[in-house]
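Lecture notes, structural biology module. Today: joint structure prediction for complexes of three components.
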Amino acid sequence: MSTEALLSVNNLTASVDEKTILHHVDLSVSAGETHVLMGPNGAGKSTMGHVIMGDPVYTVNEGTISFDGADITDLSCDKRSRAGLFLSFQAPVEIPGVPLSSFLRASIAGRPGLEMRGKEFRRRVKELAAQLDMDTAYLNRELGVGFSGGEKKKVEMLQLLLLQPKLAILDETDSGLDVDALSVVSRGMDAYRASCDGSLVIITHNTRILEHLTVDRVHVMVDGRIVREDDASLIPWIDEHGFESFEREAADAAAAR
Amino acid sequence: MAKQRTEVADIDRSLYDFKDSEEGFERLDAGLTPEIVTEISQRKDEPDWMLEFRLKSLEIYHRMPNPTWGPSIAGLDMDHIVTYVKPNTDQKADWDSVPDDIKNTFERLGIPEAERSYLAGVGAQYDSELVYHNMQDTASKMGIVYSGIEEALHEPRWEALIREKFMTLIPPTDHKFAALHGAVWSGGSFVYVPKGVKLDFPLQSYFRLNAAGAGQFEHTLIIVEDDADLHFIEGCSAPKYNVANLHAGAVELFVGKRAHLRYSTIENWSKNMYNLNTKRARCDEEGEIEWISGSFGSHVGYLYPMSVLAGRKSKSSFTGITFAGAGQNLDTGCKVVLGAPETTATVETKGISKGGGIQTFRSSIVATPAAEGSAATVSCQSLMLDDESRSDTIPSMDIRAKNVDIGHEATIGRIGDDKIFYLMSRGISEEEARTMIVNGFANPVSKELPLEYAVEMNNLIKLEMEGAIG
Amino acid sequence: METLNVKHASAMPAPTWSWLRMNDTTIEIPCDLARDGSVTVEADEALTETHASFERALVELQERLDAVRGDAADERACVRAAQRTEEHLDDLDTPALSAYQRRATLEEVACDVAAAFETGVHVDVRSYLNFLAGSTAVLATEEGEDAAATVRVAGCAGSAAGASVDVVAAPRSTVDLVISLDGDADGRDAAGLIGSELRVFAGADARVNVTVYITADASFTVIDDAGYVLDEGARVNVRHIVLGGGRTYTGLASDLRGDTARMDIDTRYLASGAEQRDFNYVIRHRGKKTISNMDANGVLTGTSKKVLRGTIDLIHGCKGSEGSERETVLLANRGVDNKTVPTILCDEDDVAGNHGATIGHVRPEQLFYLGCRGLSQEAAEALFVTAKLEDAALGAPDEQIRANVVRLGSALVDDFADFEEEIA
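The predicted structure, tokenised, for the full assembly:
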């Protein structure tokens, strides 16, 4: 483990509509590592991903987020993206009237090393689509409109591979339910790790998605707080025991506060 | 119950009695003349500027065409407009002349006999005067002025302020009936709420008008200064019967910085009425206007309260219901001008048509280039109660600002058979079920009204549903 | 420049306050234009060898309607109101109608298909475009037959060109019609005008698909005027892709006369520079269980202006019908002016009408998603403009039209030519 963290979240407290969702959260991810953020439904895991990415819906009340040596707490999300952060969504937002190919080209435009001219872009995207077993006809379709669950995941993974971020946060809270989606994500993660050795933060409450992955650290979140941090050995334990004991402890701690 | 005055009220008829000056004149020209307007002004002993204003308005009135987009007003005898201007000249204002359907409605609404005569506009009532004077006293202790606008005009203290504001929001050039109003306006309320004063009970013009004798060209001028708060209630659910059948009032509301004004109305004119009322509010920075508006009654109605959001972060909300029954064509809605940054407006309306009645929702949302960061939502639902009625929705939006959010939703339809069936399967009669659903439909409006008005409105809907009101 | 003005063009049926200046428009037709430019009609042979006519189709429909029409007196209050000659206040049970409501009621009672036929722009424009076209091409199918046609109007600077087409789709047949209205200024700034006049009769269970691409340069005035009559079970799909043209007028009126007829309209537009877009859609639901959908999606940039009037008219007797209308507009620049009037007229209870409009900027969740992929708000707005053109190029019915889109796109967006290679 390198000493300088790539992503460093310090004492982060965030709220929406004056309701605090994250309480004094710390998280540190070094280059090349794979972390897992787990916890029961409604624990604030997805919020965590959104806040790190700079979703304007949430207000950061306290704490800082540093990425690649710079404080990004006040940066807009497009600047965080260009700094090398990536957040995958459960599904891409539907944007009628915008073909997927137009969107992809706009997302790489102006990125040093990534911007490609027409032919090159087309070859690259086709290559990635083949890797993900995605029909290239989707490139001409409107973003997200009428895509199936598996196709939506493929669009997200395609972007992960195209943009090659330094750190990707994959919000897979729902993926455990869908076998197709699960395999798309697994394939995407493997390809991403193989191609650029980027860091990963996987948000999930289902361990199946982690089966073939080498996980460095596991963070457990309950009620907007990190209640446990450990190595990969925690995963089989959670598999067996679930989150009840964490929830009980959190409830006791809350009662004591 | 306060004691009832059995006698027909002594309305000061001399005010409108032009018999002497019109000798041999009506025969030649029954139209509105500068002489008549001058006479009105002189009788009221008005300042010269007001007379000038009236005469200028009269010129505009003669110049302007009738509206071409709305319900026909051909039934209004505009050549004999003078008979509307001086309503009590020839017709007898007594209980016997009140149509039976109105009398029946009073009975069915559960209005005590004692109140019926003044609701019908033919009597005044002790109770009403008392309430008005009580309100006036309490308000004045807080520095609030609540009086008749004609009286206020005679006080030098207020004359200057009235002159500064009068018909600046609704200029006589706005439309033909605004011009008519400017020429012949008479009576109405004047309310002044000083800076920072918040009144915790609503002022009700209903008591004032009834105490003073209602008119149909009344002018309401309300000024709510910075940081002040007022709720003003105009009208009531019982039908307002008037022997003359044109109502062209005007309401001008000035809302100061961070001030708040709620203006609630249930307009329920008798069904021989052409109601062409104009209402407008202007809000300064962070000021807020809330309109609660119910439109019932009238043969023809044109009513679109307008909010001009002139100050940054000012707000407008409009909640309205219109119920058009047999023989009625009610064209109602609202207008909003988003004229400053970060203003917000919401419009929520319900329209119901029944028994061959016609109901039109008409609106405009205009966002000027200054309105960056503003937002407006319009939601309009119409309910058709049978296949002989009509319901039109004609909203319009003119958006010239960037970074705005303008949303519009409208739906039209009837009561679902499944809902009726469900209620009937629980032992409720079909009529009851329909009434229940319609009342539920109207709920967003009635829940904004003070309880006694909400109850009256629900009763009114019930009556309309029975088809009991002619 | 002297102009011939057509006033009250593209008028919405039920007008609103005139101070809004939305009720209708004035079309200025330059007087000194040569009657020139190229108009071609490419059609399957079977379509053009025909004796069918639009008028004949209406007469036959009228005969069928009259045969099933009852002669019971109509006692409704609105009919009494519309038919009376004078209004008296002693008749309080008869409502006072607006001029529009009166006209609508009389038209409904008359039940005359030919008299009620209308196009979306204006009858004078119809005459003018027919004059430009010289003659009307009649495209008619036989029962059960499928056929396709493409009409191309290619305008040039200083001239006016127009096409006039009647489509008569026999029962259970399918017609695919593409209309390309293209004006290449070729570097000249002289004004030009192009237009098309279209009448469509869709017979019982026929399917008619019409795609109109407007790709004219900014010096052109473009008029797309159309009127549709749908018989029982007919389905019509219309796509309006309006990408260019200094002043464009798109008008469509549709009479859903037969039961279960259905009309879907998908409108995509872009206005840039000082261009002006004018749309007028009027859908009359007359048959039972008829359905209509209007969906418009547009982007305004520069100092462009747009008016969209969309009217769903649910006429007495159209029981079980549904009409819906939706518009999304992105205002991508300060100085644009967007006017929208989504009207529902309703004279029937067993119906559903709904409309919605979203006007303004990119929705927050879209903006966040695009932001997560590195697009700033400015970049996101630029994407919407580019995407409008690219989407149109991807969906273009043929290579020629695609080339027109690319020509226009290259003039508006840097590197648009890049895109040319991508289409495969």
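Point to remember: Residues 218 and 285 of chain C are 36 Å apart (CA to CA).
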